[in-house]
Amino acid sequence: MEEVGFDILNLFIVLLSAWGAGALIKRIGYPAILGELLIGVIIGPSLLGLVELSSTLHIISEAGVILLMAYIGMEINFKDLGKASWAGLLAAVGGFVVPFALGYFVVTFSGGTTMAGLFVGIAVGVTSLATKSRILVDLDLLDTRIAYVLMAGALISDTLALIIFAGLSSFIDAGAVNMSEILIIAGKIILFFAFSTGFGLYVLPRIGKWMASRNIDNRTTYFTLLLLIVFGLSELAELVGLHGILGAFIAGVFIKDGVFHEKITKDITRVFHDVSIGFMAPIFFVTAGFHVTLDVFKTDLMLLLLIVGVAFVGKIVGTILFYLPSGNGWREGFAVGTGMNGRGAVEIVIAGIGLQKGIITQEIFSILVFMAIITTLSVPVLLTWSTNWLKKRGELVKQFSRKGYLFLSANPLALLLGKHLADDNKVVFIDANKTNCENAKSKGFDYVHGNILEESTLNEAVAKDFRTFIALTVNNEINMLASQLINDTVFIPEKFVAISPHSGEGGSINILNSISASTLFSGKVDIQSWIQKVQDSNYKEVEVSVSKKITTREWLKSQFSEDKDLLPLVIIESTGAKRPFRYDDHIDADEKIIYIE
Amino acid sequence: MEEVGFDILNLFIVLLSAWGAGALIKRIGYPAILGELLIGVIIGPSLLGLVELSSTLHIISEAGVILLMAYIGMEINFKDLGKASWAGLLAAVGGFVVPFALGYFVVTFSGGTTMAGLFVGIAVGVTSLATKSRILVDLDLLDTRIAYVLMAGALISDTLALIIFAGLSSFIDAGAVNMSEILIIAGKIILFFAFSTGFGLYVLPRIGKWMASRNIDNRTTYFTLLLLIVFGLSELAELVGLHGILGAFIAGVFIKDGVFHEKITKDITRVFHDVSIGFMAPIFFVTAGFHVTLDVFKTDLMLLLLIVGVAFVGKIVGTILFYLPSGNGWREGFAVGTGMNGRGAVEIVIAGIGLQKGIITQEIFSILVFMAIITTLSVPVLLTWSTNWLKKRGELVKQFSRKGYLFLSANPLALLLGKHLADDNKVVFIDANKTNCENAKSKGFDYVHGNILEESTLNEAVAKDFRTFIALTVNNEINMLASQLINDTVFIPEKFVAISPHSGEGGSINILNSISASTLFSGKVDIQSWIQKVQDSNYKEVEVSVSKKITTREWLKSQFSEDKDLLPLVIIESTGAKRPFRYDDHIDADEKIIYIE
Fold it and tell me: Where would you find this protein in the cell (chains A, B) (predicted)?
């Protein structure tokens, strides 16, 4: 046995630094990994020398990389990839191939080995996914076509990079030169992918079914099982000459909803997230910073500038060029390129492996870390600028992948609101009450007759494809609990909840906040009496304009001061599209309101 | 930097073995740790030699011990300890002191060092907590006084063992002999406990409040924070000369409900459970088996038999003797002794530290592992036997710590049912409706006016002290969701849910099963109409006997076949105590039923 001491002190210091730096950098809108790399450079041997790499840090960080890659795999949904469209594929390929080629040439022309060139090419070609989703929210871009292209592009580019890396690293290990060796290696790789695909598509779902049939619902049992699958495929990948991270990634990809019960998959994915992102992976990224030498700024400044330059130009120009056939215009291609310019976890993992295997020098490794830092820093700046440019030109195209309104309750008021929204949206009603369902049917609406608490009802309604959930029963508790459920299981992003003014709902606002739901009608409304009025046709619809931009809350207040009893239903946008009237929204001067009174 | 390879293969094999052996042994009712130790002995160098200890296994298992001790600390509730009573304290002290002394003498008389004697003494004195809770459920003992004494006893004994171990290990490290050195060490230890207590009681709650005030609800952030606290206190303990596990344990003890939001604490505790019990700690226990040498059965058989004998006799006789003053009788003391006879995680951790520090030999370590295996094996056998003996003598005393019924809704039907149950139980009603609350008040009941979804309402009702939750609103969804909430947050063990026969509740049975709730009234009942009848005093109460033992379901069927419209409220036991009529219960021949019609 190798006797190695367990080193709590450095583990503590590194985790503390990672946490602090990550939290700081997140406050200014950057991903935690950036802070972790930077603090690693600062406290590591190259600058302050406060901590050095111990076996404990090394083992924990290696385990962290395996778990992180499994987690990244878990987050990839190939169904989303299927929807990714032509544009996303173009952006991904262009954004990978061009910087890959440029990176390769820069390294080989400046005297590096072919292998080093290929490694740097991959590192330069990679796109970081984590970097962007946060930025898309900050820039309010989630609904735009760019966002979908970006996310699909990053996904494809990551998968592409990993596959190329897989092939590459296995040949490096084997040092193969002649044809028969290459064939053997290729055969092994094919066998590995065939085996792991077969395992993931056929064996794993059976294990899942068997466990469900035996009523095994202990989360820890599933966690251990998934760890075994991750470590098992990881080791198998190593055995065929691929790197272990690839097996872990593939294991993660196959751990999907259909395999285990939805809640189990969700819980376990979160545990993998906690353990990798919250514990082990930060150790890896901080210690990656330990290997960085600042001397490159003196000794290899030219190469540093060249690689960073290639990373920028290659990614952005490559994206623009390959994006042209999508017909979305070169300016949108430019915006997509700026958004894909960040590098993150996958790049550092690959660069780290290159360093460990001696394929790239410490200087190149350092350059790649700085490249990750600089490109990641550039994303919000360039993406803000490029999307603002598109916005000004009126070329920022919106695209919803989740569409339509899912109503809980098909009562007369819900049907009335649904009628307005159905003009340009899919509207589906869920109700456990037969009469309500028949009413919905008679008005030509789609409906699902069932209890919203049941998974089968949500599946029947294909709840996860909706953009907005509207809970409009007379019962506050049901509305809120259903919204919470919808948020926790199928995650419909927008949730509008009707709140009646009866007693005992003091805590509702907290619940609404915690699931980012919003109050329908912008305030407490006696739903029951409005349902009655609509049912008895004892109301009239009024359409009004507003004189200036005003919040829904203010508008409602201004109306109440005139002592009218009214219920605002929808806001009509200048394009004619309608959206429900809710709290925390504002009405522009060119928009109108439909209310009933 | 020490360059150490990351060893996925052995990690995979050890985790797989641990999982398989743990699952097998759990099927026959033993704790997983027993299977892990055994498989470690089998696959390790002493028997098959399939795996040997690598740095990866070592580091992961050491990290696992730290996280496991933190988790054990988290599970300890000092409020429970406060309730533990005189009897629990007596059993704990007797069950620790006597085997401790005997173990010490056996080792020193057979030529061991004083330090080895003290270490073995602690290992022999420890009681395993995890071993028992499962057995208590299997033997249906959870409600007995023995169960409470056992749990409190094991808790106190663990804490006692860790404190003594703390003192001991610090003196061993220092090798102190003269008075001034001893004083310095003692001073350091006192400072450490003062600091960690101050931190836990004053600083930690402030951090919690500050984070809550900033609306930080990202679970991973809390997980990282708690890891930092665990590693931090662990390192601090090492710095003052105590072992790191002690700091981790203390950190765990202070991570309690009041400090963070209840849900966060619960989530994080589960993550610590998943990572320690589901991943890292099994690596530790399997590799502990690697250090075992089977030669002790030849070379040190006498010492083995002596230590195991001392463990049995010391624990059981010690418990009986010290338990006498409790006035609960020596036979109950005997049963408690058999229940406390298992050793588990804490013993193996302490023995492992003894081996690592060179205080005990590999032979003694092996003996201690076998002692853990044999004593743990004995627990279900001896405890079944001793409690059956008590049962036959009519001396198995029941004791509920959770008592009474918490009702959701104070509607007239609920008040009627509550009136029956209030004869010998605490009954509290929660209702958001003022009229219902005033009705409850006028009938002299305790009530809480508020929404059950709010934490403050549950706190006001002191929901966590109840044994049974009865959801009796007219709305199935509310009843079920409230029960789910009650199950997930304050965990009231019994949940009886009223189900009305309106459409759309096909999935309710699954929900009820998943939270082990039971249907009130043993079937679907039109709650609304019964409420009306009770409100209008349009009913009469009937008391009937049953001729033979019958399930509630069968009884109800037999009544319906006579075409009566009745609602069974409670079952009167032979002692006069009443319990609600529910599904999945049976009525004995000497019991009566009260129903309304």
Answer: Membrane
CB contact under 8 A, A507 and B477: no
Which of A569-578, B4-13, B361-370 has the largest mean confidence? Answer: B361-370
Residues of A whose CB is below 8 A from B238: 8-9
Domain boundaries, chain A: 64-392, 405-596
Mean pLDDT of A559-587: 82
- The owner of tokens 């409600």 is B143
Check residue A503 and give its pLDDT.
44
Residue A284 has pLDDT above 70, yes or no: yes
Smallest Cβ distance to B59: which of A6, A282, A457? A6
Look at residues B400, B354, B411, B435 and name the one whose alpha carbon lies nearest to residue B126. B354
Q: How confident is the model at residue A106 (pLDDT cuts 50, 70, 90)?
A: very high
Residue A252, amino acid: G
With 90 as the cut, is the pLDDT of residue B485 above it?
no
The pLDDT of residue B315 is 93
Q: Please determine whether the domains at B8-392 and B405-596 fall in the same fold group of CATH.
A: no
Predicted complex ipTM exceeds 0.90: no
| pLDDT score for B255 | 86
Query: Which fold is adopted by the domain B8-392?
Result: Na+/H+ antiporter like fold (1.20.1530)
Chosen CATH of A405-596 out of 3.40.30.10, 3.40.50.720, 3.40.190.10, 3.40.50.300 = 3.40.50.720
Give the torsion sign (CA, A339, A345, A350, A354).
positive
Residue in the structure block whose two tokens are 């704990």: B92
Residue of chain B with shortest Cα separation from A215? B514
* Interface size, chain A vs chain B, as Cβ–Cβ contacts under 8 Å: 204
User: What is the model's pLDDT at position A212?
Assistant: 81
Q: How far apart are CA B307 and CA B348, in angstroms?
A: 15
Angle, alpha carbons A462-A463-A464 (nearest 5°): 95
CA atoms within 13 A of residue A322's CA, in its CB half-sphere: 24
- Distance from B450 to chain A by nearest Cα, in Å? 5
CB contact under 8 A, B480 and A453: yes
Interface touch B58/A279, C-beta < 8 Å: no
Beta carbons within 8 Å of B167's beta carbon, 6+ residues apart: B189
Tell me the residue type at A571: I
Least trusted range by pLDDT, from A17-26, A485-494, B207-216: A485-494
pTM over 0.90: no
Q: Which amino acid is at A559?
A: Q
Class of domain A64-392: mainly alpha
In terms of CA atoms, which chain A residue is nearest residue B51?
A1
Q: How far apart are the CA of A231 and the nearest CA of chain B, in angstroms?
A: 6
Amino acid in position A138? D
Which chain A residues have a beta carbon less than 8 Å from that of B16?
Answer: 228, 232
Rounded mean pLDDT of A287-291?
Answer: 92
Q: What is the pLDDT of residue B326?
A: 83
Q: What is the mean pLDDT of chain A?
A: 84
Locate the chain B residue with the closest alpha carbon to A18: B224
Q: What is the pLDDT of residue A82?
A: 59
Give the strand pairing for A427-431 and A405-408: parallel
